[in-house]
Specification:
The structure is a homotetramer. Chain A has 10 helices and no strands. Chain A is an all-alpha fold. In chain A, helix 5 runs antiparallel to helix 8. Chain A binds a DNA duplex (21 and 21 nucleotides) through helix 1 and helix 3.
DNA sequence: TATGAATGAGTATTCATTCAT
DNA sequence: CATGAATGAATACTCATTCAT
């Protein structure tokens, strides 16, 4: 009993939180941050407006929470895949595949991530950090690869950022454009990047 | 006489239009689309609020116009540079350099273009078109290069988009991040892309 | 047994009631009627929000109850002192002293009484009554004094009200203004009033 | 033309300001500060809600402005009457009469002044000042009278405050209680005070 | 044409009150 | 009895848009 924690209350709390976060993600993805209303989010979560404010301090707080949670989950999945990959080449593939996997399962989140992030990142330093932590994963891959000779020497931070944004762009084409001309662009992206960073 | 009379009026019209568009771009870049107010834009343009509505139908219209105008000017410059380049390699360099040139001279515009575009492009099909027209220029370069054997065969549209977004990302790092670690990233970007598309 | 059982319950009831009333008085005095929240009062009373509603029907009811209880206690003390005073002069002194005593011991209550009463009295006739019952005590003193020749004839109700408000004002200076220039203003007030009502 | 100033615009501005202030005073007096809504005030002033915000920054600002304006007008009238009075006795009478006059003509204002002032004065130091400036007028009268021997020596500030509040109380009885038992209480009040401060 | 005063629809947020546990 | 999570009515304030001058 004690093992599961204060089941009754805490489970409900967590359930509500998740419920609201998901609704928020959906509505934010659909309408955009500004056009989305708390009313819509509450309705979508099946709760009253006031309830949203029991779990989040403000609309902005709710938005940031939904981004943060999504980014952290993504980060965890990607990091796990990375650890399982032996070579830099495999790591890059893992990085790409993990992201395609995650965002394919979380399209709403990708929409927010792609469309609202740049806008808000300019005013919310915390978001900048979340963004950069992701690029840091890539920086490690690059740095290790260069050190071990698997990759050609290059300026690590800016290259990491380039690679990162390249994947982001490919994802945008894949996720946001309904008519998926290329059902599995992961390979194409990998090839493109690999040409850019592998040793001649 | 009628010609001259019409011209005088038209010149003023055009002057006002440009003035307001510039003010809009500045304020939109500074505050973001939603936080920007018509009042601020009018004040910045040195006209009254109502005057803005003589030249543009709505806030959104003004925003789209400012984007459109910027994109068209960019497009013109890039296209001109492209025409002057003999080889695909030179064309790619021209494409990159022209964009770095233009956006370095129009930072406000880049900020809007980068941060607001994705958000609005999802609801404004017209913006999608503007975006794609730019990638089309690259598609021509790629297609011609492949045909002439200067470039390795690849899926043209998605590669064009990848290359396009890659340049966009490099620009973001260059324009938006104050501490320009790399004062001239054009070469790096070109190298990275060239590795990805040149024949082995 | 039934008696004791009932008592035990009743004692708890009364204890809770008093506890909540005191908390209410404190928070109302601190924040003012509108800014005070049931949550704050409940927290201060050490009970849950819902519990407050087991003892009082509404926020307004709680407020009125806290005023009523304070006024009744005050009334009782004043009346007791009055009964012990032999002459009109002594009675007036007793009236003044009893009020200064009571409010010095119940500053929170005075604050509400002084700042919130006028506002609410205009819409709550019941409060008007509480107010007037206090003036009635003074009316008796005046009427008796005039009848016995200890006081100069005057219009009793309006004079009573004047005297009453005068004391109230002196109390406000004494209780609300931190820097008590005059540590014992009872005498001054008495003198001022006495000049106004004693026979020439 | 220039003499009257920018007639057209300024006159309208002033007209609107007055209009809204009067409406505010009316609604604040009727409902109390918190219960009054900007909508009600706007409706009463015959303008749209937004218009109120063209002239006043916030509800609180509007409230303070209405108080300030009323107090200043009152102050001016009272001061004028005081200057015309030769003796301390006449000055006290002038002070009382001017206030009764003013508030009889501005009942809404008195209601706010009486019921909302104490509540808000505790949090708005500026209101404290307005309040005290009025008592200062009385202090001059008392100080001069004592110096010239027309009044009995007494602690000036606290006595001034007592006299001031006494008049306020009499006004409350006169203005707020519909059934005016005493149609002209000025004389009674004066007598009462005079007994308290005239030389024995 | 140009102006800017006026409009009023739209929304985040608070908090008294209820009620299932 | 006690709790406190859930509710949703109520409201100040903003700002794109209009239109009389």
């Amino acid at each position: 009993m004690a093992v599961a924690g204060k089941t009754k209350k805490d489970v409900l709390q967590e359930f509500r939180t998740t419920e609201i976060l998901e609704a928020a993600r959906h509505v934010f993805a659909l309408r955009g941050y500004h056009a989305a209303t708390i009313d819509q989010i509450a309705a979508h979560a099946g709760v009253a407006k006031g309830t949203v404010y029991l779990y989040f301090d403000s609309k902005r707080d709710l938005f940031l929470a939904s981004l943060r949670q999504g980014v952290l989950a993504l980060h965890a999945e990607v990091a796990a895949q990375l650890r399982a990959a032996p070579t830099p080449q495999a790591q890059l593939q893992a990085f790409i595949n993990a992201r395609f996997d995650y965002f394919t399962r979380n399209r709403d989140f990708f929409k927010i991530y792609y469309t609202e992030f740049p806008q808000l990142a300019t005013v919310q330093p915390e978001l900048q950090d979340l963004y950069e932590q992701q690029a840091k994963l890539l920086e490690s891959v690059l740095a290790d690869g260069i050190r071990s000779g698997h990759l050609r020497p290059c300026p690590v931070p800016s290259t990491a950022r380039l690679v990162y944004d390249l994947i982001r762009s490919a994802l945008a084409q894949h996720i946001l454009n309904e008519p998926a001309d290329n059902p599995h662009p992961e390979a194409t992206v990998f090839q493109f990047i690999w040409k850019g960073i592998s040793p001649s």
